[in-house]
């Protein structure tokens, strides 16, 4: 296609994706009440556990705060609801320019990255209550904790996003291996750095006092790193065998 045809095709794909996002946001806006109740469960648990010792509440500091929060939640959930449509639009736009092998690799990477991302968000959700509870223990007895609703939502959203993305990083290591940038042995040689980075990330993402959550998160990231190194070494071995089979008998001997 010409450049003009590519631009027309891109505009078409963007319009379909935008329409899907708007529909997803409308649906998500309707269910914001249960979502808000869900993300505030850790705060409710803290309030119940501390009783009269600590007053814990979520508050809105502006007139438009409740509406703004619902819009932000609707946007985030709308992206997830409409993901099958806009992901397909992206795929349909770039697929004609890919070879059959590139299509297979891309489908494999997406097929691995999406479940890993959601697995990461699930782990983040399991860790989140411990983070909120540990932080609340630093409040003196007889004081109050008033969480700004917008700030609290941003904290939850960013926390889940960061943990989810961290679970996808091993997929990028495998992609670098497939692209010939890094060998499997090269990835494995960096295990000390990977363990250090995973531990530091887990320490930053979780409270220092919550050692269980930190060890759990760091352990999962380390296991994913070694899995990526193992898969990369397997790809290298297959690539080496394939290259050996293409060599003439004299060269192979």
Automatic annotation (TrEMBL):
Keyword annotations: Cell membrane, Membrane, Protein transport, Translocation, Transmembrane, Transmembrane helix, Transport
Membrane-crossing residue ranges in chain numbering: 12-31, 73-94, 106-128, 155-179, 191-209, 215-235
Main location: membrane
Superkingdom of the source species: Bacteria
Membrane topology note: Multi-pass membrane protein
The keyword Repressor is assigned to this record: no
Pfam families reported for this sequence: TatC
Localization in the cell: Cell membrane; Membrane
Role description: Part of the twin-arginine translocation (Tat) system that transports large folded proteins containing a characteristic twin-arginine motif in their signal peptide across membranes. Together with TatB, TatC is part of a receptor directly interacting with Tat signal peptides.
NCBIfam families, sorted: tatC
Family, similarity comment: Belongs to the TatC family.
Subunit structure as annotated in this protein's UniProt entry: The Tat system comprises two distinct complexes: a TatABC complex, containing multiple copies of TatA, TatB and TatC subunits, and a separate TatA complex, containing only TatA subunits. Substrates initially bind to the TatABC complex, which probably triggers association of the separate TatA complex to form the active translocon.
Protein name, UniProt field: Sec-independent protein translocase protein TatC
Gene: tatC
